[in-house]
Structures are given as structure tokens and as C-alpha cells.
Amino acid sequence: MLFNTIDFVIFFILILTGISIYKNKKFQHFFLLGASYFFFFYSSNYLVSLLLVSSLLDFYLGQAIWNSKSSQRKKSLLVISLVGNLGLLGFFKYANFSIEQFNSIGSSLGWPNLEFLEIILPIGISFYTFQTLSYTIDIYRGKLKPSDSLKEYALFVSFFPQLVAGPIVRASEFLPQLREKVENLSFHGNIRQIIIHNSNLKLGVTLMAFGFFKKMFIADNIAPLANYVLGGPLTHESFTIILGAIAFGIQIYSDFSGYSDIAIGAALILGFKLPINFNKPYFASSPSDFWRRWHISLSRWLRDYLYIPLGGNRISESRTYFNLATVMFLGGLWHGASWNFVVWGMLHGLYLAIHKMILDKVPFLKNHPIFKTKFGFIVSVLVTQYFVFLAWIAFRVKNFYELRYAMEKYIFLDFEYELTLRVIEQYRFELFIMILFFSLQFISYKQPNLPERISKYKLPFWGIFILFILLGIFFFYDGNPEDFIYFQF
Amino acid sequence: MNLKIVGVLAICFTMGIVFLYVVNDWYNTNFDVEKQRLNWYSEVVETPNKVFLIGNSRVYVVDELHISHHLFQSGKNITVYDLAIGAKMLNYWQNHLDEIVFSNPEMVIVGIDPQDFIVPKKEIERNPYWFLEVNTFLAKGITSIGENSHPSDFWRFDTNNFKNPKLSSLKIIQFLETGVSEKNFNLIPTQPFDSGSEKLYYIIDLDRLDKLTEKSQIDIIPNSSEESALIEIIQTLKKNNINVILVTTPRPYPFLENWDIDEKKIWDDLLVRIEKQTQIKIYPLQNQLSDLNIFADNSHVTRLPEGKIYAEELAKIILLELDN
């Protein structure tokens, strides 16, 4: 079930009605769990069984790890959890990719080709696998006490607002919210009644309105330009390629952060706080700053469960650079079974490593006064974003020949005035969206917590704001909207 | 839950929908699509060096901008307009020959496929605005109450008003900006006449298509009215010194390999007949791209950028014809 369909709106209204009418706590929790499974079943049919298997596996393994006295046994149980979860993810996401690689190597050696498997990638598997993994790893590290209730654990894994595309929530962030009292690692107070508070409702609806606007007004309406340029870049000159890269950067940000806003807003209305996923990434002034602002829940996950266990930056400089590259390589591969995602991840790994290397070798740059000035900040942002948008080309263009061509045109400028004018003439509306996007980003950068401020408006003014958002969406709804990009991951 | 907040949301949603409906209803009443198409021909007369593509959805999927770019890079400044409209048979273009001739293109490319020579079937599609159908039920309810009463237009939502609001909104903005209500090309990046179907924005893997495809039978009717229409289109355009190119539109190999041999013969005979009667060469794109993963289904190249090779092939044909 896509958020940007009337089906979801009806589904969500029914959920809110059900919870408001019947106030029994146990019923409410069961109702949310059932609704979450229905939400998943509606899009993925029988693949809902994978969600169930993953939940059961980690629930019981989590308890077994906690109760186990021997550290060797704890380790073995953790390995079972890792193999089980990563095995499922690997099979569904990377099996055909591996066969393709095997066949391409095998064909040069004269080996017979392997048949591709008839499998569909289950929606959200990359997200809920990371959630369940963080649960068992945290228990293994002694940072989390396992949940006693299978129902609550299953709700944590399947909670519908963030099920298919995040934010990637930790058990320690979600499970306590199901209880009234939380002490240290324990969240064993009475289960909490779900009450729809006015402030949560207004802020949640405002966030959802922002999310729908980002997705349906900005992302869907700028997509034709990104598709036109990066879908087949071979005949385009540099200006068009740069426009295409910017258009895709705007599309993917509005699409994914729009989804996150809807998820966070929907959860908030139900009384659950999900972590933020984006914080104006196009104002990042360095590669590491970008990753503190872009897909925050994934970068936190990669930092805590991959980068730090690899040694983080407490080891030799060369190992740190290597670790950064490895983590970003895996982060790229997490996005999809395709080499272009690996290139994208490697590029970001390279940016992070080079940035760190420069700061290590030339330490006075770190606190140089020039970077404290407005001019220094603007230059840092522009340079960072130049490289970020270059990497977006790798994210979008799958064919390597086309990718090389597009990147060359982006780096080595080669303008053709006539073609540029033609593209500007044909894509005027998309260019208008581009300008609007950066203006809105600037406003929200200057005015932090904008949704919260708007949600505190008096009811009539708040209503007018919502009406304007709705009119923008309704009047510029594209008859052929794009799917959420991150659904494919 | 505060009912005031819910009330405000309900009012906003209702106002938004009503406003959209009213504006689009006004738009649909005042911006007659067919009238716009006719006016478009008279406006495009001034454009020099233009090529028209005509046909149905199998031609609609062509990326005309890509053809223009390709031609431009080969030193030809030609504007290509893809006039194709989904589900339009050759009879439609036969009826619009006067306008085409009047607008004076250098060249017209006609895309044909076996499917163009059958008796058309009416397709039933699931309405994405199923939730609005309640109004149709209401309308039917009103009809059944009184013998002489009719469902009021007020009650009957025209769901077309909601299908692609973006296009109408852009056209309304253009109208407000320029005061011209009929000119609608340029608003859609490529085709001026058709907004297309979402089914065409898709790629099906050929191996998968192969598994799904069973024996293909189309029921071509030899010497049909469509065949006569095609011959008349070609002859009329030639008579008016407009260069005509006939191409068969691409099909994927799973279709071609499973195509009934007898029917294939009927199709080949039809092509020979048309070639003989009109004295023009037919470019057979039908088999040329059949091995490529560029198809949305068994008869359409995708509208996604992966299908650009189709446009490139057409550009090559145009260049070839211009050189001759």
C-alpha cells in the first residue's frame, strides 16, 4: 500500500477511528499489529510470512542470548541471528545479482549459464532486517533487555508507518513507547493506552502534509526532467547533465524525506515518536556533515553496527580510511543489487576518506577562521554539494557506459547552447519546481522546526495552511506518479 | 481526539476536492481537446522543417525530442512532432488528412502494426477513482425513485476531471499567462496530443515475457476499411508532395516467435499489397529491436528512457529518406 494513494488515506482513517472508539489497551495493541500486517499483506501478499519468520527468529534468539550464561553460546546464537537475517536478505536481494555475476565470469571461461531464480524482492526487507539485527546485537552487547511479549516485539518490527522504507528504528527507541514506565534497560510497566492527543494530531498532520507535498508536488513533478536526462544521457551536453543531476537530487530527497515525514507524522498521531531521517542535507558543508543529515537512521546504524566494530577511528589512519570506504561500499550495496549503487557508495566512501585525510594532514584547516565566515560556509556547501550531485548520477544511471559519459560531461564542461535552450524551453515547469525547492529549503534552513511552528497556529490559520498544501497536491497531481524510490530497496 | 481538528481537516479536504472538480470541469468544458487539436494544426503551419509521426500508442511511445536531438547532431534542424494518440485507428488519421496537409509537414511517418487491421475491441479498465463511483450509484438511485427523473449532472462526477490534473493546471496557467486557450503543445514534454497510459512506463524482462506468452493470434482482416484508410492516407499525402514513410512498429521476440504462421502470412501479404499499391518502401522495425529489453508489454516499446533506441532508429530512417 503506497502512502500516496487514496487506499492509504482510507486505511489510516479506519485505524484512527478504531483506536479512538475502542479504548481497551490490549485491543489497541493487537489492532495496530493486525493493521500493520494487513498493510504489508496488501502490498506483498504471501511475503508477509517472511516478516513473521524474521520476527519469530529474533524474538526467541534475543531471549536465548539474554538468558545464556556462556559467552560462547551467546556468540553462537548471535551468529544464527546474523546468518538468518542476512541470509534472507541476501537470498531475496542478491541471489539473481550473484547469478548474473557468476554467468558473466563463467561465460568467458566457457561454463554453462545458471538459470535466474523466480523471486520477487519483498518490500521493506532491507529496513526490517536492519531493525531486527539491531535488536539481537544490542541484547548481545548487554545494552538492551529482550522484550517479554512477542506481540510487542512483532509490533516493533512491523509497525506500518516505517515498515517499508524506514526510518530504521531501534528496539530501545520503540519498545519503551508501548509501556507506561521505563527504568534503565527495563520497560515492564503496564502497557500504554494509545490516545490521540490534539498536539500530536496537529503536528502529525502537518508533518504528513509536508511529506505528501514533497512527494506528490515536488518529487513527482521534477521526475520527468531527471528521467529524461539521466534515463538516457548519451546525447546530452554538460548543462543538461548538470540539470538532470540536480533534478534527480531534488527528486530523491523529496521522495525519501517525504516518505519519512509521512511515516513520522502518522506514527506521531498514534503517539509514537520515530527518529528523524533527514536534516536539510543540501546545506551540508562537508561529506561527514552530509551523512549526519542524509538518511540519518541508516548512517547511525552503519556507524554503530559496522564502522565502530571495525575499529572506527581509534585505529591507524590508513585503517580508518579503509573502514570508511568499506562501510560506504556496503552501504551502497545495501541500496540495491546493482554495481551503480556500489559506485555511489564507493564515491561517498572516497569523499569521507579524503575529507578526513585532509583534516588529519592539515589540522589547522579544521578550525580555520575562513570556514566560520558566511563566505567560507557558502563555498564549503557548494563544493560539498558539487560532489554529492556527482554521486547522484551514479545512483541513477545503471549502464556503465552511460554513467561514464554522464560523469565526464558533469566534470569536463562542454556546452551546446542550442540544446540547452531546447531543454529549458521544454522543461520550464520542472525548472520552476527546482527554484521553488531551493527557496523552500532556504526558508526551512533559516526557520528550524517549521512543522512544529505551523502546527501551533490557531485552528483557522492552520486549516488555511493545510488547504494550500492540499490544493498544491491536487492541482499538480501527475496522472502517472512515480513509486517511492526507496520502495525498491 | 479533538473533533474541531478533524472537522477542519474534513472541510479542507472537501474544499480541495470541490475546487479541483469545479476548475477542471470548467477547463473540460472550455478547452475542448478535439478543438485544440484542430487549432494546433493551424498554429504549427509556421514552423519550418517539421516531421509528423502518426499512429496509435505504439507510435505514441516514441521520444520525439530524442529524434530531434539525433537529427540536430547530424546537422539537420528538424522539429519532430509525435501526434500519435493511444487507441486511434487509421480511420481517425484518414479523417484528419486535411489538417495534416494544411499544416504542411516535410514528412509524415506512419507507424503500423497487425493490431491496426482488426475490428477494435472496447477495453474495460479498473477506475482508479473507484471511491468516487458512489456518486454514480447515487445518480442511479435518483433515477429509480421517479419514473421521469434523470440522474442530475450535478450528482454524476466526471472522473476524467481527476485523471491528470497537472496537465489541465498547466494549460490553465498558460491560458492565464498568454490568453491563448487552444495552444497546448510544449506543455507536455514530448507528445502534444496524448498524456499516455501509465502501463507504458514499465519494462518487462524479455525472458519473463517469453514465459508469459502463449500462441499469439490477432485476427487481421485482409482488405479491411483500415487498409483502405492507410492507402488513402499515403496517396493523399504523396499527392500533396509530402514525403511519407511507412514503418512497422517494434514487437518483442516472444510475440514474433509465438505468432501464428498463417496469420503472419496474411500480414506479409498485406504489406506487399500496400507497397505495390502505394509504391512506397516499408521500413520493417517490427523485427529489428525484438531482442532488446525495451518493451512495456507484448506490443509496446516502453515510454521509459530505455526505449530511446526506437527513436534513434526512426531518426536514422528520416536521415536516410532526406539523403535520398
Describe the structure.
The complex is a heterodimer of chains A (489) and B (324). Chain A has 489 residues and is an all-alpha fold. Chain A has 20 helices and no strands. Chain A is globular and about 65 Å long. Chain B has 14 helices and five strands. Chain B has helices spanning 3-30, 33-44, 57-60, 64-73, 90-95, 97-102, 134-145, 165-178, 206-212, 225-239, 253-257, 261-278, 285-288, 308-323, and strands spanning 50-54, 79-82, 107-112, 243-248, 282-284. The longest helix of chain B is centred in the first third of the chain and has 28 residues, at 3-30. At the A-B interface, helix 1, helix 9, helix 17 and helix 20 of A face helix 1, helix 4 and helix 8 of B.
Annotation keywords:
heterodimer, A: 489 residues, mainly alpha, 2 domains, globular, B: 324 residues, alpha/beta, five-stranded parallel beta sheet, 5 strands, 48% helix
User: Rg of chain B from C-alpha positions?
Assistant: 23 Å
Mean pLDDT of chain B: 77
Q: Uncertain regions of chain A: pLDDT < 50 for 5+ in a row?
A: none
Order of helices and strands of chain B: HHEHHEHHEHHHHEHHEHH
Distance between the termini of chain B: 76 Å
- Relative helix content of chain A: 55-70%
Total number of β-strand segments of chain A?
A: 0
The portion of residues forming beta strands of chain B comes to: 5-15%
User: How many structural domains does the protein architecture of chain A include?
Assistant: 2
Low-confidence stretches of chain B: 121-157, 182-196
The spatial strand order of the largest sheet of chain B comes to: 2-1-3-4-5
The main β sheet of chain B shows up as: 5 strands, parallel
The biggest beta sheet of chain A is recorded as:
none
Decide which structural class fits the backbone of chain B: alpha/beta
Tell me, what's the shape of chain B? globular
